Please model this.
Amino acid sequence: MTLTNQLKEFRDATMNRMPQSIIQTFNDGIKEIKTNQLKENALQMGDTIPDFSLRAIDGNTIQLSDLHESEFLILNFYRGGWCPYCNMELRAYERLKKNFEELGVNIVAISAEISQLAAQTVQKNNISFPVLTDVDAQFMKKVGIVFKLNEKTKKDYVSFGMDFTQIHGNENYELPVPAIYVINKDMEIVFVHFEADYMTRIEPEQVLSIIKNQVQTAK
Model:
């Protein structure tokens, strides 16, 4: 089953049992992201990703540039291990990890969840690529993909038992829009997928095909 089908199946099942008021709140949040033109203001193809210090699951600090050992690096910005859509996406990239590596592509996943929770995300999804913590979402803010939860959305997440003060280790109530950035050895962005609707993701196979075409063009 494709990632798209998995996400749709889960989305349909969730929406069928979720109160309409909460569905409306989440839909309003997606509209707010689009209205605020977060996508347009984020870093775009041709821009350069800044090098940045991130935290590994063992608590140690690591530079993004130190992870860039191949021709391309995929930055998978995910919301957190609490997000089922993100978990499905991470597992989909794990299944294709060897295919990406054959093209000279490495993968890293980045979220604002504290390193202890990132370690749990690794374990429950059997992830073998680096899963890193962006403390206080500082790196993701530089990329331009972070938004602040409005009060209604915040209350709905709390009603689901989501305490972001514990998940993120701060009281900022900020989340990234799930995004895929592919950068080359010069840290230049060669591909971006940014989707305001967190329940929608690009197929990893499509990303693989796009990179394959770029490799063939460069020859």
Notes: The chain has one domain: 3-218. Residues 20-35 form the longest helix (16 residues). Strands lie at 53-55, 61-63, 72-77, 105-111, 131-133, 146-148, 174-176, 179-184, 189-194.
